[in-house]
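Researcher: Please generate the 3D structure of the following complex. Treat every line as part of one assembly.
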Amino acid sequence: MTSLYERLGGAPAVDAAVDIFYRKVLSDDRINRFFDGVDMEQQIAKQKGFLTMVFGGPNNYTGKNMREGHKHLVAQGLNDSHVDAVIENLGQTLKELGVSDADIADVAAIANSVRDDVLDR
Amino acid sequence: MAYIHYQGSDYLLEEGETVLDGLLRHGVTNVAFSCKAGACQSCLMQTAHDASPPLAAQRGLKETLKSKGYFLACQCRPKEDLTIQTPDEEGLSCLATLVEKKPLAPEITLLRMKPEAGFSWRAGQFVSLVHPEDPQIIRSYSIASLPETGLLELHIRHMPQGRMSAWAKAAALGDSLSLRGPAGDCFYLAADKTVPLILAGTSTGLAPLLGIMRDALASGHTGKIFLFHGALNADGLYLEDMLNQWQHKHPNITYKPCVLANGQDIVAEMKAAIASLNLAKAQAYFCGAPEIVGILKKAAFLAGVSSQNILSDGFLLAPPPR
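Model: Done. Output below.
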């Protein structure tokens, strides 16, 4: 039984997905204000870490850094609807890359598992 | 909390404080620095006895410098005590002689400097000049010329109270100074000579873009090449005649100067020019004012340029003298 991360294609799949995903996020008026003024290179590196994590791959994400990293955004009004939008963009990205609905559901479940950390509750 | 041992004294760093900030806070004055963002490499220091500094403090340094314990003081947050020294200039800097100087614009001067034999670079990288009378003043300038010319072409913008640009203003042919580098990864890389090249920048951000363009032309690049040069007012645009001639001579070149104070929007100009292109393999280079560089990067990315094909060099200014 191969892992979800391996099935999705590992690190090359993350590289393929990151531009599509981040472009969707920056074009999404529901959430793009949270990315105003952030450095693109740093943000792409972070998004790669995020994608690796939700693909079930080796990552350094911890509840603590998810919480710390988003606290300033929670103060600016980050809530469940924004997390939903991110997960929706994630799903559409994977669909474009030909990932099965079952695998997309697994990825969404991992993303959902950090929701409370991201929203600091 | 870590102690820094430097020139016979011990300095306690606060939690999370960088070596540079800590030394400055303790009143140590003989440390060089400029951008304080890990880019310019002016604050280069070295550990004693080849001890290893934190990895993050060596980002962007050449392997030869890393192996000798060089690090950037502004990026160095040691967890343990560290003994440091001013960097050994041996193998770090090179002497260069001024061989040509001419005005490009009211506030911009072109310098051509001849480095010692063996100094190599890629057009678009930068060198850091060390002020001949005050070695703590180290400022970075991008290279507009190809290594085949044997001369470093630099565009110096005169800054109010700028000590390095004052040197450039007063310097005479034959004067020399030492320089460090080259560093930076903003140079021509296209393995495929048919892809679009998108170059945009402000003020002396033109210097590295010219270097990249010269490299592309010398390499036989056949894809479209777009150059957008922005300046606050018309005085800040320069080399327009030469660039118009290039545009005339090379049908693949599009040159668009933008006077920002007249409402010419460099970002909008770029977006309009590249909107109908296939950008999947395009290479984009952005140099100059960091805020505009950030906006250009985002716009190019959203237009379809791959994030790994976007290279940039935001020019961070040194704080004015106290």
